[in-house]
Amino acid sequence: MYCTEHSLVLSWAPATKDLTVCEKMCDASFSSGSFGLPWPDLNDGLFYSDVVAPSDCGLTLIDFYSTKHKNSAPSPGWLQRIQNGQITIDGMVGKEPNTILRIGAELVYHRFPWREPDAPYLLEILYEDDDMIALNKPSGLQVLPGGLYQQRTVLTQLQWWASRQNFSVTSQGSHPVPVHRLGRGTSGILLCAKTKQAKTCLAAYFADGTSLVEGKRHFADEHPYQHGDYQEENYKDLPSASKWFTQG
Known about the structure:
disordered N terminus; alpha+beta; elongated; 5-stranded antiparallel beta sheet; RNA pseudouridine synthase 5; 4 helices; about 250 residues; Structural Genomics Hypothetical 15.5 Kd Protein In mrcA-pckA Intergenic Region, Chain A
């Protein structure tokens, strides 16, 4: 389904009979335009943290990484990283591979910045209100960090956009967040919540299969938010919405 400014439709089916959804025409609420900053040549790299467990007490620095993270690099590779100063022990650079580790020591490995594969960066705004923003995600752009794409994602562009907009919603944090997943190769509508309450509600609807896409331009005027304490969700557990919001 191809969704434009004149065909975008979002509505929710109530989860219970006690919840009422008021739908109305809301032309004035739809936004136009796009945002996005070109990607830098290199990302910021990554930091991986470990804490030395009692069972690891007495291991040397090189033994720890070559056994605990042998799938990331062979022993010579970890030796090179240690000598490059890419690993710290309790905040201090550890360049001696035979350093004996103590229980509770915090180890941090810094993966140097790298150039990520090419990806689009512009995002079209289809709809925006105080609770959410609907974006037209292009094919080739990953929603959340993963694999080789740690910076070139929708989430990063949302963070950059929010910082330029002086975005501030106390209940959510510093920027809007996606409430569902779309594959990197999938183009379509991506919903992002501006508040914790909106994120909880929208993610629940997608997970329950109660989100609908119809052939007219409507939007729920009142969101039937669920009440109760908000529990922060892990991004990787967000439901997939490709079957609802995609364009061919």
